[in-house]
Amino acid sequence: MANFENLLEEINSYNTTDMFGNDFMQTWHKTEDELKATLKVADALRNLRERNISTKIFDSGLGVSIFRDNSTRTRFSFASACNMLGLAVQDLDEKKSQISHGETVRETATMISFMADVIGIRDDMYIGKGDAYMREVIESVKESQEDGILEQRPNLVDLQDDTDHPTQALADLDHIIHEIGGIENLKGKKIVMSWAYSPSYGKPLSVAQAIIGLMTRFGMDVTLTHPEGYEVMPEIEELAQKNAEKSGGSFKKTYDMKEAFTDADVIYCKSWAPFKAMEKRTELYSEGDFDAIDELEEELLKQNRQHKDWACTEEMMELTKDGKALYMHPLPADITGVSADEGEVDASVFDRYRNELYKEASYKPYVIAAMIFLSKFQLPGQALKDLEKRGKQRHYDE
Amino acid sequence: MANFENLLEEINSYNTTDMFGNDFMQTWHKTEDELKATLKVADALRNLRERNISTKIFDSGLGVSIFRDNSTRTRFSFASACNMLGLAVQDLDEKKSQISHGETVRETATMISFMADVIGIRDDMYIGKGDAYMREVIESVKESQEDGILEQRPNLVDLQDDTDHPTQALADLDHIIHEIGGIENLKGKKIVMSWAYSPSYGKPLSVAQAIIGLMTRFGMDVTLTHPEGYEVMPEIEELAQKNAEKSGGSFKKTYDMKEAFTDADVIYCKSWAPFKAMEKRTELYSEGDFDAIDELEEELLKQNRQHKDWACTEEMMELTKDGKALYMHPLPADITGVSADEGEVDASVFDRYRNELYKEASYKPYVIAAMIFLSKFQLPGQALKDLEKRGKQRHYDE
Amino acid sequence: MANFENLLEEINSYNTTDMFGNDFMQTWHKTEDELKATLKVADALRNLRERNISTKIFDSGLGVSIFRDNSTRTRFSFASACNMLGLAVQDLDEKKSQISHGETVRETATMISFMADVIGIRDDMYIGKGDAYMREVIESVKESQEDGILEQRPNLVDLQDDTDHPTQALADLDHIIHEIGGIENLKGKKIVMSWAYSPSYGKPLSVAQAIIGLMTRFGMDVTLTHPEGYEVMPEIEELAQKNAEKSGGSFKKTYDMKEAFTDADVIYCKSWAPFKAMEKRTELYSEGDFDAIDELEEELLKQNRQHKDWACTEEMMELTKDGKALYMHPLPADITGVSADEGEVDASVFDRYRNELYKEASYKPYVIAAMIFLSKFQLPGQALKDLEKRGKQRHYDE
Asked: Using only C-alpha atoms, what is the Rg of chain C?
């Protein structure tokens, strides 16, 4: 693994100018340099922490979180990232708050930001809503800072929107890179983003889209596979196509799961709801037609049940490169016979890859911390070097 | 704007002896010196923060919050104030707690205070209850410290009671002072505290009372206006009258909104429920007569609807000094056509003053921090000077 | 009271090797040295805090709490302990989280632990469950650290399980020791753990068991008394018996409350539900038979009502040594005429001992902090000495 000096050298070689004072939304709005810098800063922060060196860059300040969907992993990852940088987490629990009907996003965003250095938002439930909400928050705090209301501008970290899940996909990418020994080895590796059966309904598209939107950036051969009718957003498929062309990799789509798995180096296998259905649900939701939503749910569950054979079984894993592809999942998974009668993955497959899956998850706090870090420093490499030099212990050591 | 040295000079000129080790309840229990010191310490803390100088006076310690009513602004303001002074916020969520029926206030107050340096409470729903509860908490922790149970006495900050909303009114006053260029310019300025129509019911009286109770202290000409039957507590009107006499200002009451607005420098326009009705609701509540409460609510909503013309319209604003009075509101406002069909204020008025309204709100975290600060130092000016000298960065700067 | 140097000397004299990197579950799995060290480290941390010396040993890091039962006292004690050591508290609210049905304990435990230095758990509701759950969490994070997933292993603090309440019992013991002037004076003192009537149902057994399991370790004469049918777990009684034999104290059981109270030095009097009934409830719960649970509740309440005479009355207190035994309770108590029509204790008894009861509670934050402290240092005495030498102020002092 790269040592600290090497990491700093790499970080210094990337152009991160536009990340300073900026937000982290979809990975497709970031340059390759910016994405690589994020991964390397994450690694450098982890390196410091492993050596018991404090990574606090704030003496005080708030990290505000807004979760419009349940969350354990991302919530703890955001809290961990804030904590390791010195920010206290203040959650905006919309149920306990006094946000009046019709109150503008700008008002709420400003009211919670007087001492906020970062805002993390998860809003992934409705097509066209999460991304739009986050951008409105960004515009709001920008405007409020320009108007002299906010002394500092909190930078936003997208903790999952309706199109992308950047902290997840970058943590996943960091995991792959560590498993295969370097970014340079991504070229030509085959990764499969596969749909899988789940007895539950309405899982966000954003993980699948995040994976095909990101992994096509670095020369990987990306295959998207799912049953007919489970299409993701067409613009994300187009984007993946263009990414692949540019990076020298490839992007393929197939309805044949077996074809997809054959000779794969990495298998990412999870359930999602069809884009068209999610779009329809969003419409019904804004019309307040909850009966129709219930009907839609029934239909989708029925449709799902026709594809119970879409699972990451031992047989399917056999088809991958030497039968040993890296199996990945954002967790929690629907494990057949464990968390579901029939689910996304065989228990024996899941068990074999348990440690890798947990390691995969371990990158997320550092990736979020890196996103924040890069929004705060013009010279992130220098700042990291200064932290090492300061050499403050994270925990008092005998 | 006053520089840091000038602020310290002013702070040193005030007698704040009684604030040390003490609580911040209603403004009318504070001297002019104490109120001015609070504003100037707030400004000084903001000055330090703007210069990236840490204002942490605690290495560890808890700021305990108890919210008996929903809150976004005050919750975040309290969290921000605690954070900038170095305290971690621990919320007493009465729903998750194991406070047994009949448990004394002294017991709960003591149990949450072993490591608490400050307690912030919002309890504004029932007449005669909020203030009483807070005073019982104060007595409790005082007693527990005297009895050797608590090593330190947490000081209480009143985050809104049934009679006053001191952190709001002082943030408002700080805003006015900054807009008009100094405390000395308050004399002779006309401020209107006006009732306004809102489709909702039971808004606390405490903001209106806070404004007339505080603004009469500094020589302003204060006019209270509302429809007949929307009287505030008579003792607060008397208090405002006495304040005005003492400060060389004036306090007037009128049922004629137009008369009130004419030539005003500042318009504070918001809804509240009549004191008599709130008193009745409190009685019904203690009798557990929820049907009667529902009836009362219906009556009040009906009564409100007769006064839809009480709104801060463009026409009304035209009447003010040069048509340009400073419009104020504690937020969130019921904005006509935005957050309500008919509400407290025209959308165009609100929009024009949006930035000022947000700036108004920005003072609250600093005012709360100043209240805490003054309860902790005998020589607050010296302590602020020491913080500047210490010169610790709030956020690590390249 | 012992001064700091004496405390360090005592701490250095105990063998705490096995506490380093370890967890704090039931007191009966700790040696006498380890228990004494916990009390003395608690006292030393309190001593430092009283002298305004910072006890922060973490620059950043999380203290994760999981409360599967309501809590005020223990919640605030855990938050206080974490705060004084420098950890931010992150609560795993199982309602807001995305823990999927069937998700393994190892998965959740790992996901919340990437930056956790300590995990505190309260899980006391079902026989055989709380302890088992905690041990699974311990095994999980141990395994995840060994597998290279976690960089540090969070140590677990048992904040009450179905068998023991170690933080409560040790805080209680620290209180007794301070009241009687030293550990060495425990020998021969009579402490009574008495059942008492309460109108509520299903209070955990763990406090009663914690008391007889711990107080028998130091030569005290421990008497357990309750109505027939209110037996605690037989293995805890056996354990108490063995402890007493080993420590030179005694353990007696009687159904005669008066006999128990006679000549007692310490009275610990609180309600609990019979072990057999709790066991049955657990079974019914796992069968999902909620009607039978309701029936059981009715039965138990009826049975309770036959023992309203089991209360800590003035008459009963008269029987104790000089009528002046130390009255103890973990709080909140069911006080006759205050928090219950008929309850565990007379109001006048409770009032007379109020200050002592609150002092008793004040030891808990320090006991928890000591448990964490001892899990983090091989040479706790040296670490405490270093903190004193560092001499950082807890709050900035003029």
From this structure: 21
Q: What is the CATH number of the domain that holds B346?
A: 3.40.50.1370
Whether the predicted pLDDT of A188 surpasses 80:
yes
Interface contact flag, B358 A149, Cβ < 8 Å: yes
Closest to A317 measured CA to CA, from A326, A306, A330: A326
Asked whether residue B285 is domain-assigned, the answer is yes
Chain B residues within an 8 Å CB radius of A108 = 72
CB contact under 8 A, A149 and B67: no
Backbone angles phi, psi at A121, to 5 degrees: -130, 135
In this complex, how many residue pairs, one in chain A and one in chain C, have their CB atoms less than 8 Å apart?
A: 111
One domain, residues C264 and C281 = yes
> Residue C368's closest CA among C153, C166, C146?
C166
Domain of residue A322 covers 168-361
* C147/A83 touch (CB, cutoff 8 Å), yes or no: no
Which of C71, C359, C396 lies at the smallest CB-CB distance from B98? C71
Closest in C112, C377, C387 to A76, CB measured:
C112
Q: Name the pLDDT band for C98 (thresholds 50, 70, 90).
A: low
Nearest residue on chain B to C88, alpha-carbon basis: B88
- Beta bridge partner(s), residue A340: A336
The pLDDT value recorded for residue B398 is 74
What residues of chain A lie within 8 A of the CB of C114, using their CB? 76-77, 80, 361-362, 365
pLDDT at position C195 over 60:
yes
Burial class (CB in 10 A: 0-12, 13-18, 19+), C382: middle
Q: Which residue has the higher pLDDT, C94 or A216?
A: A216
Work out the pLDDT band at C2, boundaries 50, 70, 90. Answer: low
Q: Which amino acid is at A82?
A: C
Instruction: Summarize the confidence of residues C122-151 as an average pLDDT.
Output: 95
pLDDT at residue number B397: 86
- Given this model, what pLDDT does residue C209 score? 98
What would the mean pLDDT of C280-299 be, rounded to a whole number?
92
Same domain, C226 and C334: yes
Distance CA A160, CA A124 (A): 6
Give the three-state DSSP class for C277. helix
Mean pLDDT of C202-210: 93
Nearest to A359 among C64, C103, C149 (CB): C149
CB contacts of C144 in chain A (<8 Å) are: 358
ipTM attached to this prediction = 0.95
Task: Tell me: do C385 and C280 sit in the same domain.
Answer: no
Q: How many residues does chain B have?
A: 398
Q: Which amino acid is at A118?
A: V
The length of chain C, given as a count of residues = 398
Query: CA-CA distance, A114 to A117, in Å (whole number)?
Result: 9
- Helix and strand numbers, DSSP H then E, in chain A: 16, 11
For an interface test with B, give the residue of A16, A65, A95, A107 to mutate (most B CBs within 10 A): A107
B206 and B57 housed in the same domain: no
Q: Looking at the structure, tell me whether residues C259 and C368 fall in a common domain.
A: no
